[in-house]
TrEMBL record:
An individual GO BP term: ATP synthesis coupled electron transport
Family (UniProt): Belongs to the cytochrome c oxidase subunit 2 family.
Cofactor annotation: Cu cation
Annotated protein name in UniProt: Cytochrome c oxidase subunit 2
Chief localisation class: membrane
Subcellular location: Cell membrane; Membrane
Species of the source: Mucilaginibacter yixingensis
Enzyme nomenclature, EC number: 7.1.1.9
Keyword check for Amino-acid biosynthesis: no
Ranges of residues in domain Cytochrome oxidase subunit II transmembrane region profile: 111-206
Domain (Cytochrome oxidase subunit II copper A binding) ranges: 209-361
Free-text remark on how the cofactor is bound: Binds a copper A center.
Coiled coil: none
MF-aspect GO terms: copper ion binding; cytochrome-c oxidase activity
């Protein structure tokens, strides 16, 4: 056998495929078993891998035997001068039609069943824009999907090869080349520009006066909230100042820090611009507020922010959903560790008056034990040097 024939050999290709499949199975079995310790489990995993390799070989054998039987049947028919029994073009054409029908029913099922699992009604200003963009893109792409699938499978059935029909060889056609280049290019440009302008209007959000600044800090496994005090400003933070009591590492050399407030619930006034400063202390987390169409990673060492305007209060949404127990929530959308599922906090959207009232109930972040730790027990000592507690704790 020449080298070229050797490379092209179907048997060799089949053998390589089997070896690769077997190898992958073994590797997967070993990876899965690596966390297990006992030899019994390891041998069990190997037995499972061997079982799947054998099953694969068996299926290959059955397919090959069926193929041979059909071939023998055809040859016998030919020898007896009978016309070819099965018209495989007809079989394939019909299979294409069946596949199209199943595909369309499947697509319909997916729209009706999974469609009801999509995000709920947007409760923020920019959320409506994002939903609009999503709907437009879906309509465009679904139209193309249905038309192309029906044409592809329908044509394969309608124009299957027959004894009378001869295939037309079309080496080149400028008109159709132009159509299938220009039409998708124009449609995609419209979609991309639409997406780009929407994205810019959402993310082009410099800080302006009147924004309500709130810090949300993620750590394994909770969100910490910090509101500014009467001055409306949040004090600076420094990770080297993190201690058990000062778990956000707030820098009390900054006077803005003194009236900062601690909160357990993210209460926000309706129709006001909220600026969420997003931070992380250990691994990457992700602020996820589906009703407000907000999702942004919280990356250690890389403070980011997201601005949004809530438009539907919790009470209004309860009415809409006819569910008096409904609460908006902020989740973590990154699998950040074993307790990841714990990272949720209630968001309550209220009227401005209710918000102001709620602010008065908040306790300052600078608790009495923290004052003691920072040696700030006496109000007159506010300017005293704050030592690096982290260094002292080591
Ligand atoms: Cu997380």
């Amino acid at each position: 056998m020449g080298f070229k024939n050797f490379i092209n050999s179907k048997k060799l290709a089949a053998l390589t495929a089997v070896m690769m499949l077997g190898g992958t199975n073994l590797l997967m079995a070993q990876t899965a078993a690596s966390s297990e310790i006992t030899d019994e489990q390891k041998s069990q995993a190997l037995t499972n891998a061997g079982y799947y390799v054998l099953l694969f070989l068996l299926i290959c054998l059955v397919v090959a035997i069926v193929g041979r039987i059909l071939k023998v049947y055809e040859l016998t028919n030919n020898l007896q001068g009978k016309k070819a029994g099965t018209n495989y073009n007809k079989v394939m054409g019909t299979l294409f039609l069946i596949f199209l029908a199943f595909g369309l029913v499947g697509a319909y099922w997916s729209f009706t069943v999974q469609g009801s699992m999509t995000l709920p009604e947007a409760a923020s200003k920019h959320g409506v824009q994002i939903d609009h963009m999503f709907t437009t893109t879906t309509v465009f792409t679904m139209f193309v999907f249905f038309v192309t699938q029906i044409l592809l499978f329908g044509f394969a059935f309608l124009y299957k090869s027959t004894a009378k029909r001869k295939a037309h060889f079309l080496p080149h056609n400028n008109t159709i080349e132009k159509v299938w280049t220009i039409v998708p290019a124009v449609v995609l440009t419209v979609l991309v520009v639409f997406g780009f302008t929407t994205w810019r209007s959402v993310m082009n959000s410099a800080e302006v006066k009147g924004d309500i600044n709130i810090d949300i800090t993620g750590h394994q496994f909770a969100w910490e909230l910090r509101y500014p005090g009467k001055d409306g400003k949040l004090g600076t933070k420094n990770y080297t100042l993190v201690t058990g009591l000062n778990n956000l590492g707030i820098d009390y050399k900054d006077k803005n820090s003194f009236d900062d407030l601690k909160a357990d619930t993210l209460v926000i006034p309706v129709n006001k611009s909220i600026r969420l400063n997003i931070l992380a202390q250990d691994v990457i987390h992700s602020v996820y507020m589906p009703y407000f169409r907000v999702q942004l990673n919280a990356v250690p060492g890389l403070p980011t922010f997201f601005k949004f305007v809530p438009t539907v209060t919790t009470a209004q949404m309860r009415e809409k959903l006819n569910d008096q127990t409904f609460e908006y929530k902020v989740y973590c959308a990154k699998i950040c560790g074993g307790g990841h599922y714990n990272m949720q906090k209630i968001i309550r959207v209220v009227s401005d008056a209710e918000y102001q009232q709620w602010l008065t109930t908040l306790k300052p972040y600078l608790s009495d034990p923290l004052k003691k730790e920072l040696k700030l027990a006496d109000a007159g000592q506010q300017n005293s040097e704050v030592k690096n507690r982290l260094a002292l704790n080591n």
